[in-house]
Amino acid sequence: DAKTTQPPSMDCAEGRAANLPCNHSTISGNEYVYWYRQIHSQGPQYIIHGLKNNETNEMASLIITEDRKSSTLILPHATLRDTAVYYCIVYNNAGNMLTFGGGTRLMVKP
Amino acid sequence: NAGVTQTPKFQVLKTGQSMTLQCAQDMNHNSMYWYRQDPGMGLRLIYYSASEGTTDKGEVPNGYNVSRLNKREFSLRLESAAPSQTSVYFCASSEPRAKTQYFGPGTRLLVL
To answer: I need a surface site. Which of A83, B5, B10, B95 has the fewest CB within 10 A?
Structure first.
């Protein structure tokens, strides 16, 4: 599976959009981009995933560049409850293992 | 639906003691997983079970054994606990090969 690179931490003002970047320059054509988050002391929570096209659900939007070498998770109106560690994971559905890296610690501030 | 449940929530062990961490899911998922998370680190896969009756090693299986008791339950056993096994343990479940995994609340284990 392709390795991902994320900034270790980011801040965002409450009510503003949070844009979390992820680089995955070695991604293969059949690998998906998944995003999970982990709020302090809780189990990780699935957010969104995509292959080529941009995706949106009730939690977030996922923007994948045309060359698929990077992506951005967007929380449109961040709240204090969005403070968490966000993990970008690139995965080939032929395998069985999710590999969690260090993630980005997002701090939403009042 | 309770989703994924884990017991116990907290446990303190002495070096050499044994214990079993229990996990159950009510989503009728075929695949189940055990991860550990050390302070400030990402999750690492210990063992997984792609379907009832099968188990496979993950990234860090040494010192652990697992049992897929039935479709709902997947247990993790520490036969002789070591301080290096102090961690938070998460269980998860999913459909086969699906990467949308649903996680339990975790078991916090301290080995003295």
So the answer is: B10
Provide the 8-state DSSP code for A5.
B
- Distant-in-sequence, close-in-space partners of A35: CB < 8 Å, separation ≥ 6: A20, A22, A46, A47, A48, A49, A60, A62, A73, A86, A87, A88, A89
Does A105 lie at the interface with B, CB-CB under 8 angstroms?
no
Contact B58, B47 (CB under 8 A): yes
Instruction: Provide the 3-class DSSP secondary structure of residue B89.
Output: strand
How many other C-beta atoms can be found within 10 angstroms of the C-beta atom of residue A32?
A: 16
CA-based nearest residue in chain B for residue A48? B100
Q: Which of residues 65-84 of B touch A (CB under 8 A)?
A: none
Backbone angles phi, psi at B30, to 5 degrees: -85, -35
Q: Is B96 exposed, middle or buried (0-12, 13-18, 19+ CB in 10 A)?
A: exposed
